[in-house]
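yo, Phosphatidate phosphatase APP1 catalytic domain-containing protein is done. seq:
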Amino acid sequence: MADWRDRSEMNGDVVFFRYVSEGMEKSHEEVFLWDLDKTYLDTTIDSLSGLMTTILERALNKKNIPGTNTLLQSLSEYRKQKKGYMYFPIYFITASPPQMEERISEKFSLDNIRPFGCFYKDNLANLRPGRFWRLTKQVGYKLQALMQLRTRLGENVRQICWGDDSETDAIIYNLYSDICSRRLGTNDIRTTLEKLNVTGEQVNTILELQAQIPENDPVEKIYINLATDTDPDYYLKFGRRTLATYNTFQVALDMYQDGRLNLDGIYAVIQDMVYNYGYTPEELMKSFDEFIRRGVLGERAYNEVRPFFIEKGLLHSSYQPSVAPLKEKLVDEGRVYEMEGVHEPWIPDRIDYLHDYR
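structure:
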């Protein structure tokens, strides 16, 4: 196979591998974007030793975050059934080096996934004096990758994004949203990014890319996998659009509530997590109750899911949640944006990116 440099597009740290035509990239109204590390694959690349372990690991040995592959397969199948889509528009972004592209592509093939493209970080170039600090700093790299991706997609595309709490994914995705929508001015962007250790060169590239994209917000939803067990209440500072989840089952519940998944898809995720990853039905039903208690799963979805879980033997017929589910207040095209009694905005007017508090 040709050298990775011959098969990719490079712009600073950002290396992009495109697997479909440009026309197909622009033809989809809804696109999924998944951070690979600790969100889809159980990898550790936030240290030099972890990075080297990941590089040397064979595709067969790479482990999924429980339930993620089944969730992707179920999302893709439901889109085919509902709208007749033949292709599942998903991109991945990873801080792994592009030298790993062949092995990760092999892993995608094993998982029966055909992404539209994948972003890699040219991290081995940072293994020299004066650049070591860039190995674990991801804001500039990921934000530039997101902006490059935005230039490739349709004008009114909606993006559903996945990240985790081990890095700064919630900050990155929300900054991307603010930059695309022009909620932040140029000076605010520069000041914020510089304080987040983004280099001047990266800041200039991000602003150049901003000038090339439509003035709208493409981000529909942001899921944050609580890989390091952060308090989910922290993420309320980013608004209810940014949803922290303890496991893939909770993501499946929310996607069902928003009409992107059916009951069979939820059950497939449950079976995968129970039979392949050692979860117990009791653990997952506790997650179900926690989602209701947190005010995420509303009354309509609860009333549909509860009898299904009882039928499958996951809940007792007498089950009642620890708190009553909230009523849906604002639903648009099947998507739930507001619940009665909840005061946090869907998207705040302004987010404090520089201080670590709610």
